[in-house]
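Tokens for chain A. Residues wanted.
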């Protein structure tokens, strides 16, 4: 085993869990590359109590002092970019290029956190003669972040650097499928000089998530994962009085107009649908052709057929993910759809590989709302943008939607009609870059605000309003 035992990081110490043992599999060959023992609820509660003490000191520092440590951490992310990317690649199965991209995005997110002292200056105004009001953004306390398997480095960086820079103590609960990157992050925070107890990693599954939702000293939770679990975490944590932002699953749509650039458009569409084996919450799952889109359609199919499994298409995360994709292809076939490309032809004994699949629903309205989260592209057909938008709007999710066209009027119409938090024009993965924030709507997000950017500053702070009066000679009426 390359990684041996992966430890929890509790109050500055790497500690074995006292709960169930989990094996960590490499999706590329199905071999065990490490193991860990889950932290117990007792271990969680103990570390939260210690984090609470540590946070009192950390939160009392100025934002400028804290940002020095965040800056050190950013330097270490650059120094260990290669090692972190290799870990990311091995535990998740993604290509090394995708792993580099994830680490680079983590660096960009950390740079945003370094700039927080510049962003949190509050407002101040003399609201009356001798009376001043000002605002301050203060830390909220011990907070938690629960993350999914698909971006083991990038997604924790949506929440961890900002929350810490803003003076909070963080409990990170990574996916039990990909916990190794989080251990490396702990090493880097330690080397950066972060005081003990401010960044902690608790490993485990459902039980430890429930422990986080129930612990009264954790005041805020950010969650990223599937919609059913996002709902559970949102409901259980808010019932315990916590602030929660829970990002869920997605089924994203791209509307293609007849005038779309066939070569560039098809390249972008298949990269969105099949890149990272479709395991991105921003991946396109449904292509809706408006009118005759034969040129783009044939190019999408031609280029998809040329994709090489194992080179262009990495493995999916588990054998269960392969079964889910296979069951969906059976469902679509039975419902009357045409399976234009069947990824099951690429199944192998070694590793969790499956090729790209394309399902054409023709004029059948039986596509399921279910998120497949694999390399599957479904094709729908419409006569107008309004008809296409109706298909998009019917989805319970609202993460991303895009249109491919050369015509500005089509763009205006589509942007008006789409129901999704992140919209794109001629771009397959419309992820906003820093400082713009990331977040969907509908069943892709529970809670208010976005997880990154300026929006996250409000999530990780309390806004305190301070009124001062230095005019005892003035009349009592403070409204004057
Ligand atoms: P998941 O929901 O299975 O797991 C996410 C986290 O929840 C993990 O840490 C896991 O340990 C925990 N968990 C799982 N089941 C639980 C349960 N029953 N009770 C309590 N906790 C539980 O998600 P995943 O499979 O790791 O990741 C893929 C999903 O994440 C997809 O649905 C994808 O769309 C979504 N995702 C969304 C975004 C976004 O920005 N909206 C980003 C990345 C991934």
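Reply:
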């Amino acid at each position: 085993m390359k990684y041996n035992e992966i430890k929890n990081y509790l109050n500055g110490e790497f500690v074995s869990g006292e709960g169930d043992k989990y094996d960590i599999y490499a999706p590329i060959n199905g071999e065990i590359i490490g193991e860990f023992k889950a932290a117990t609820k007792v271990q969680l509660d103990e570390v939260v109590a210690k984090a609470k003490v540590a946070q009192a000191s950390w939160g009392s520092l100025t934002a400028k002092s804290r940002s020095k440590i965040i800056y050190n951490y950013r330097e270490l992310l650059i120094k260990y970019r290669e090692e972190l990317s290799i870990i990311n690649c091995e535990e998740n199965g993604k290509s090394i290029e995708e792993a580099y991209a994830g680490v680079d995005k983590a660096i960009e997110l950390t740079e945003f956190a370094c700039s927080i002292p510049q962003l949190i200056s509050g407002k101040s105004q003399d609201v009356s003669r001798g009376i001043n009001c000002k605002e301050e953004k203060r830390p909220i306390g011990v907070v938690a972040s629960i993350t999914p398997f698909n971006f083991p480095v990038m997604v924790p960086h949506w929440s961890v650097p900002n929350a810490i820079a803003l003076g909070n103590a963080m409990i990170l609960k990574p996916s039990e499928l990909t916990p190794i990157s989080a251990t490396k992050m702990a090493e880097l925070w330690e080397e950066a000089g972060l005081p003990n107890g401010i960044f902690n990693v608790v490993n485990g599954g459902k039980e430890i998530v429930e422990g986080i939702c129930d612990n009264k000293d954790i005041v805020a939770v950010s969650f990223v994962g599937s919609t059913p679990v996002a709902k559970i975490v949102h409901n259980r944590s808010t019932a315990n009085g916590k602030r929660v932002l829970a990002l869920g699953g997605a089924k994203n749509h791209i509307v293609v107009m007849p005038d779309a650039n066939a070569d560039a458009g098809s390249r972008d569409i298949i990269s969105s649908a099949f890149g990272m084996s479709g395991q991105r919450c921003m991946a396109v799952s449904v292509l809706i052709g408006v009118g005759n889109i034969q040129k783009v359609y044939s190019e999408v199919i031609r280029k998809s057929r040329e994709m090489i499994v194992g080179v262009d298409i990495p493995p999916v995360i588990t054998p269960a993910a392969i079964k889910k994709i296979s069951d969906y292809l059976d469902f679509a076939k039975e419902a009357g759809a045409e399976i234009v490309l069947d990824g099951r032809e690429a199944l192998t004994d070694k590793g969790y590989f499956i090729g790209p699949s394309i399902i054409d629903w023709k004029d059948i309205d039986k596509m399921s709302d279910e998120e497949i989260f694999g390399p599957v592209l479904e094709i729908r057909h419409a006569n107008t943008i309004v008809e296409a938008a109706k298909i998009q709007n019917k989805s319970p999710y609202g993460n991303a939607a895009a249109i491919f066209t050369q015509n500005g009027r089509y763009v205006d119409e589509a942007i008006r009609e789409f129901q999704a938090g992140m919209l794109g024009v001629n771009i397959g993965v419309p992820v906003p870059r820093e400082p713009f924030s990331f977040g969907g709507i509908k069943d892709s997000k529970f809670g208010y605000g976005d997880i990154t950017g300026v929006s996250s500053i409000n999530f990780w702070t309390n806004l305190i309003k301070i009124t001062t009066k230095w005019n005892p000679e003035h009349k009592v009426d403070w409204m004057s």
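The longest strand covers residues 131-139. The mean pLDDT is 97.
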